[in-house]
Amino acid sequence: MYPSPFHLVRYGVLNAVADFKATYTWRSWSFGWLGRMLAQVLFFTGLGGMLDHPGAVRYLALGNALMTCVVDTMAVVATTSGERRAGTLSLLVASPADPMWVFAGRSLHWPVSGFATASVALFGLGPFFGVTWAAAQVPLVLLLIALTALGTYCVGLFLAVLVINVPRLRNVVSNCAYLAMMGFCGVQVPVDFWPRAVGAVVQAVPLTHTLRALRAVSDNRPAAEVFGPVVPAVLTAGCWLLAAVVIFRWLVAVPARGAGTLDLSY
Amino acid sequence: MSLFMAALRFQLRLAAHSPGTLQVWATAPLFTAVFLSIAEHADRTDLTSFAVVAPTLMGQWALALGIAGELIAEERSQGTLEAVIATPGRLSVIVVGRILAVSLLGVTTMAEAWLVAGVGFGRWIAVPHPVVLAAALLANAAAMAGTASIMASLFVLMPSARIVQNTLTYPLYLLCGVLVPLSQLPAWVRPLGRVVFLSWSADLFRAALDEAAVSRPAGRIAVVALLGLSGYLIGALLLARVLRRVRRLGTLTHT
Lengths: 266, 255
Description:
The complex is a heterodimer of chains A (266) and B (255). In chain A, 74% of the residues lie in helices and 0% in strands. With 266 residues, chain A is mainly α. With 255 residues, chain B is mostly helical.
């Protein structure tokens, strides 16, 4: 009997935990990675201090704090394409199990790390820049961080599948993707600052919606403005995941099986 | 000198096709757009030059740090490290020559950022002090190579070079006033930033793009060059010590 999707994701998660332990110790994560990400928040928020624009510092602090979980999570692009480098991609494709379930689990350490990073940034750094939270808001904020991380994970999986045949581009693609999100999804300036076409395109990105919801929570706006964006965030995340599955199955795995080239195009 | 030039030419050939260079070329316009959007949204068009200077320095430093981290590891994985070390040529000269190549290549990001400001935002930035800018760009590239060479030697001993590479980006950009000048940071931070050449380079680049006369340009460029030279000397010393150690332990190909 083949392993169920649940078991495949579970094995993937075990792999992710081992991968994370091989990359970081608690010390190198806390003082290295987390320190670097908090410095990134301060870097962008610092520009707000020069602007003499009311609310700019708070706006930038909140957007860039949530952005840290996006940066962290986009590492899924690199680890997924790492399967080819490790020589395991052909085995995954050859096995009767669906490799997409393996991919779905094997990089989950990144959204978890991103969740932790953004939580520290929002609750630890945010108050220094006017981003404060009431106790009742905390669960909602945590939920929105988790949704951002998981939504971005789906976007990342889609991009990972796209570059699986050109792994040299994995870092270029993931960096450009998160910078584009940082620029156009409302992290630094409101979405309506950009031309309408850009505003329309970024509606397909989960971050655009979760960030709008988080700003609504922060500004104590009505529940409809908080929960309204959650629906498109979940829907868009689902669409990215579906697109990743379809592209991997029909545009990567099937042609590669036929041509026998999975290990040759690195 | 011929060894230095050979290393520089070799790296230029490699770098033109490397994913690291492509990444910097691809991300510089996005960084510029991000910084410019923040300034434009607040009607602070006077900060346009800041949005051009920061991506330039960030791109150059990312390239320099990237090659410093990968240089030794790549030689090791290709099995050429022992041969390189066995030759009478000084490894520190090769290292600094190769890093200088990518630092010089990174200057192109300033042109990219300038074009994004002009084409994308209609802010064509004048260069009132081209000689100062050119001299500062050259001194900065040299200083970057010298400073990043310190990392190359540390990376021989460290298995987790990637974490160090990541860690030495934003904290350093922040501390050195790459985007927000040191004068805007808390007073206690400024002396720390002044020890690193990046802070002097950032101020010089911004001054060269400003209408006002640049004060003491020669002295400030000399400081950039001197800090870079100190970096090179520290890097060469460290590399010699590290090589002595791995030779003694017989771990050149294992560390």
